[in-house]
Specification:
The mean pLDDT is 94. The protein starts with a strand and ends in a 15-residue tail after the last helix. It is of the alpha/beta class. β2 and β3 form a beta hairpin.
Length: 360
């Protein structure tokens, strides 16, 4: 018997939805919201009723009966740190999303909306591998400053999905492989996968790895401290410099990797910036190879930037001595969410229950 699922992935100014029958997507749609519509709400959680109505109205226009769905799956938000898994949407999980315990982010609405709609039609709701998935080893958490521990915030959904996809393609269990997965998008995360866990990862949001199209990545800490107390910038301006206006944006005024590549063909500065990005990502891969004691079965490149052959080829030149490289360009988040629920429904894995106190 097939499983029909509704997938909900909220962004800051849009809500992506997908309708699946098992792992086959029947259709997807990006429901866009104007700045004026979003500006009416003080907090992200206040947008819930508005976005729910938009989703239900769209399904009605498509003549899809909401009661025809067997499961509803939402994008996980900024919860407390938890292990990887497909989590059943519970009252505790929804409350932490509403309270924004990990910060305000549109993805917080994913679990809330999934739970609301699922309750109305009497089915289960899930979230899958939110960005706060934390499986880091104890030694990986130390930064050198006790007050500044290293934090696991990364593209867990896509990293886990492509790692499991690769394992399936080669006929091996994900848990038996040592992989280095590199997600290259608006942010960059490089994770070391072993024993079915991401035991170390470079923080994709405000962390310690390569710079990205709009994030600074690791910067010299002493110079950053001087900049913070120079009197020239506010705390907000410094944070924007690191997250949003960093990386490609800072050097070239664009966060579009395709545009950076075009500029690099004619502009020496742009070529240096692009090559520095490749250089830093490659260094991060080398670092994670050390985490895995050099025993790496495969390196996987994914995310939107992985569509660029120049970037892929140049990274391969630097790291193929470690392990072969597989490229899965883009990120199919809707499918990854649908597959997470299917694994639970088919009995391939058990649904996890959100109880972060047990992992602290």
């Amino acid at each position: 018997m097939s499983v029909k699922s509704l997938i909900i992935n909220p962004g800051s100014t849009s809500t992506k939805i997908g309708v699946f029958e098992d792992d086959k997507m029947l259709f997807d749609e990006t429901l866009r919201h104007t700045t004026e519509e979003i500006a009416r709400f003080d907090r992200i959680v206040d947008q819930m009723d508005f976005r729910k109505e938009v989703i239900l109205n769209f399904l009605k226009e498509k003549d899809i009966d909401i009661k025809s769905f067997d499961v509803i799956v939402g994008r996980g938000g900024l919860l407390r740190p938890i292990p990887s898994g497909t989590y059943k949407v519970t009252e505790k999980l929804v409350q932490d999303l509403k309270d924004a315990v990990g910060g305000e982010h549109a993805s917080n609405l994913g679990g809330i909306l999934a739970g609301e709609i699922a309750d109305e039609i009497g089915v289960d709701a899930y979230i899958v591998d939110p960005v706060v998935v934390d499986e880091m080893s104890d030694v990986a958490r130390l930064s050198g400053v006790p007050e500044l521990p290293r934090v696991s915030i990364f593209h867990a959904l896509n990293q886990k999905a492509v790692a499991k996809r690769y394992a399936k393609e080669v006929g091996k269990r994900y848990e038996m492989l040592n992989l280095i997965v590199v997600h290259m998008g608006g942010g960059v995360s490089v994770g070391a996968h072993t024993g079915g866990k991401v035991v170390d990862v470079f923080n994709a949001l405000s962390g310690d790895g390569a710079f990205s199209p709009e994030r600074a990545g690791a910067v010299p800490p002493g110079a950053l401290a001087d900049l913070c107390f120079s009197g020239k910038y506010s705390q907000k301006e410094i944070k924007k410099m690191l997250i949003g206006n960093g990386g490609f944006n800072a050097y070239l005024g664009t966060n579009d990797a395709r545009e950076v590549y075009k500029q690099s063909l004619e502009n020496e500065k742009a070529k240096t910036v692009l090559d520095a990005f490749i250089y830093q990502v490659s260094k991060d891969i080398g670092a994670q190879a050390a985490v895995l004691s050099g025993k790496v079965d495969q390196i996987i490149l994914t995310g939107g930037i992985a569509y660029g052959e120049y970037v892929d080829d140049e990274i391969k030149k630097r790291v193929e001595f470690i392990a072969p490289v597989t490229v899965y360009p883009g990120e199919d988040e809707l499918l990854a969410l649908a597959e997470g629920a299917l694994r639970v429904i088919r009995g391939e894995e058990s649904a996890a229950i959100y109880n972060p106190e047990l992992t602290e």
